Amino acid sequence: MLQAFARHPRRLVFSVAGLVLLGWPARNPPLQEPLLEAIRARDFLQVDTRNTPTTYYQGRQGPSGFEFELVRRFADQLGVSLSLDSDGNIAEVLDAVRSGTADLGAAALPLDPTLPGIHFSRAIMTLQPLVVYRRGLPPVDEPGDLLGRSIGVIEGSGAGLVLRELQRDSLPELGWKESADLEVADLLSLVENGDLDVAVIYAHQFKLNRVFFPGVENGFLLGDPLSLAWALPAERGLALLQRVNRFLDDMQADGTLAALDERYFGHDDYLEYVGARTFIQQVNARLDTYKDEFLAAARETGFDWKLLAALGYQESHWKPRATSPTGVRGLMMLTQSTAEQMGVADRLDPAQSIDGGARYLRSVKQRLQEEIEEPDRTWMALAAYNVGLGHLYDAQKIAEMRGGDPYAWADVREALPLLQKRDWYSRVRHGYARGGEPVIYVRNIRRYYEILNYLERSQQQFFQLNQREPGADDGSLFDVVPPVL
User: Fold this and answer.
1) What pLDDT score was predicted for residue 278?
2) What is the C-alpha to C-alpha distance for residues 124 and 248, in angstroms, rounded to an integer?
3) Distances in Å between the alpha carbon of 434 and those of 284, 310, 391, 392, 447?
4) 375 preceded by cis ω (within 30°)?
């Protein structure tokens, strides 16, 4: 749930070795102690953050997020556990740092050296402000197009700084609204629903969220980039700050920063944007018809029902009478031999197809080598569902020939397209295959699965927004920044 809407403490302590949930120790070391020594003495690093896709969230495999990954590594380097409080907004995170309640704030914070009581780390990544607007409005392509529009930003995010600079330098008649209790997804929802015309967020945030909000358009980049940094208490000495900066320098030098950036923000092309919009439309139009069947198959096989639903959409767009030129049929597009193997009497019956497809996927997954760990095991099972287990084994062999890891999806994914090249497929058992197709196939299913997970979470995340009456006053959500004229 969005932390701004439900102020329930979310204080987690993670063992850096195993991310094990522990008891909650006292947070405040004596103020007279040097901070770095105090952290080591109490054996945990207290980090205050926000519950957002770009900072920290609970993913399918446990705690995730760009900044979470970094602070976990930093705590590991210090040799202490990591304690997270994700209950606050930006202002509350900064207040916790100033007061010494938090050792470090990692919450998509813009580097602002004018803030009192705060030392900022070196820059971690750039933050490029971006104007987005509701689809159907006249294009918002330049600063002058903002005039007369209802504009929303997150208070303290840095977007307000850029708007104030624009107001001061060239558009004194510009006004906007700021909220401390909303996150990026909330702003995009308000834009899409018509409660706002425009929002100013960051380009990487829109890249991460845009497939979930097909009614929001990309506008234009606004102002110069800002810098994301960590906040540390200014009154607690410089030892921790120096250690943080040295750590971040190391992360940049060894490529970890670049790898995390690619992992969390570099997969925008996994699915063509229009395809994602179409998928969301089909979720609303068709998925409920077959949801009970997916749930039943999930209970039988142990898969997440949303993964099975994503597989079904990739196969047939949830069309139970789908038939391919090669003779595969039904919602899960089973071959005749697979249907017989799974005991499916009627491939065009959606319940039988979903059940048979889920059990077949489970059987493929069980036949993979035990050395393959999750989530790679699931991705390879999906690839084999598409291209056949024999061709997957061949791709593993090619990956090994090329010096890669045959049990890592990243290496097998690179090897699969080589099954189309004679120099490679002539050296493996099952010969030629259209190996590029399972790569795209798995990529799309992962993206569909990601969207379904997001949509399921959003039913709770936007509860307060969805409870508001249409046209209700948004004064409880925003503070108004008026024009200076």
Assistant:
1) 83
2) 7
3) 33, 22, 10, 11, 21
4) yes
Q: Tens digit of pLDDT for each residue in 237-254?
A: 899 999 999 999 999 999
The pLDDT assigned to 17 comes to 38
User: Which residues are the active-site residues?
Assistant: 315
């259209």: which residue's tokens? 434
Q: Residue 68 has what pLDDT?
A: 94
CATH code that applies to domain 11-125+228-266: 3.40.190.10
Please state the domain extents for the chain.
Answer: 11-125+228-266, 129-224+469-481, 273-444
User: Which CATH architecture is the domain 129-224+469-481 placed in?
Assistant: 3-Layer(aba) Sandwich (3.40)
Over the chain (485 residues), the average pLDDT of each successive run of 10 is 33 47 41 76 94 74 84 96 91 95 95 94 95 95 95 93 94 93 86 94 87 86 95 92 96 92 68 69 92 97 97 96 87 94 96 98 97 96 95 97 96 93 88 88 91 74 47 64 70
pLDDT at 23: 35
Domain 273-444: which topology?
Lysozyme (1.10.530)
Angstrom distance (rounded) from CA 393 to CA 191: 48
- Whose structure tokens read 């007279």? 32
